[in-house]
Amino acid sequence: MAPRIDFASLSLMDALDLAVLIEEEAQERYEEFAAQMEQHRTPEAAAFFRLMAINEAKHGRELAARRSQLFGGVPATATRAMIFDVEAPDYDEARAFMSPRRAMKAALASEAKAHAFFVAALPAIQNPEVRALFEELRDEEVYHQELVKTELAKLPPDSGLSDEDFVDEPTAQ
Amino acid sequence: MSATCEFQAKDYKSDLKPIWCPGCGDFSVVQGIYRALAAIGRPPHEIAFVSGIGCSSRIPGYTTAYGFNSVHGRSLPIAQGIKLANPDLLVLAAGGDGDGFSIGGGHIAHLIRRNIDITYIVMDNQIYGLTKGQLSPTSQKGRVTCTSRYGSMENPVNPLLYVLAYGAGFVAQASPTDLAGMAATIEEAIRYPGFAFVNIQSPCVTYGEEAQQIKGLKAISESLKELGHNPEDRLAAMDLAQHYGEKLHLGVFYKNPEPQPTYDALVRERQALLSKDALPKERILDLFIKK
Prior knowledge:
A: Ferritin; elongated
């Protein structure tokens, strides 16, 4: 879909507000995924998604504090309608009985997606402060990817089983 | 009527945890509905949400609105009754493609011709998911399922053309590939004064085909706005709607610039007119007594 953000005219306050909204969206999606996993008795993936939600919330709070320090209570003009799935994993990344490995790979893909968002936005940005912020956020996404990769490396070797092996086969009534 | 306080999406989320398969497109649809309702700003107790039977028909339970998970294919007549009995309610109806275009297919025409002020959301996944993967009315020709082992021999129903042909005043399509767009489309449908139809391509992760998942849908998505489509042009809408199944056009296909009076408004008008000469309640039996 068309970008709903005019990066060329983006102010630092709007950029910070968008960054907070991006973190909030990702946090909510991970919480939703964690709830889905708990509902479907997949506690390992649920725990990982909860951890991701905590991390996104922490990052969101840090950005919100910066915004508050710089602009106080000036009402935000950026809205959730301007963003979609920047750092949040796609809805269909979740799967019943997904392994921790698959959960981590979904998170890794989301961090890469967020990195691509900031990279794509940078050429259009005019305001140097906004540029500096987006460069910082872009680099943080690389750091986040490294963190997920480190967690992935700690996992035992893949069992070879597919998540699909646990899904009921279609049947006629 | 409408409250003055502002509502947030979370105010429409119930405590009930969805039991859809993880990854199901319906998770995004319910989020889109929360956002749309928050933008509309009506309190949950002023909203009635009716569904039929199927995976997607669980949706009213996941909202804080008054909900009725009714009978297979019968969400629309029940929603119609609710709207006529209490016209001040914001009435939503929802269900899947099987519920809406197979067993319930006959009802759509009548709500459209009456122009009842209801928003009907169909979560179209082209399969019967709840009963484990049988052919549905919108399944593509050639589709292999447990009830079409050698491929479907039937042409699918085109939901968009179906409702456009019957004269629906508002017809739109959305998908989980664009949640913000979906929320805006649902909001616009609710604000339309009359019968509004939103077809949402909502992938079934368990029985759906790969091409129908979010990545596949993204590949065939096109925004009607970006195509320069004029939503007031019904014939252009019908032309675009013919590409259902090949392309995923997102946004408003058709919005009648001069909405017809709604049936619920006409009923109220008629009631007001007739009530002038109506007998008082205690004399109602006089109507049946021969003089």
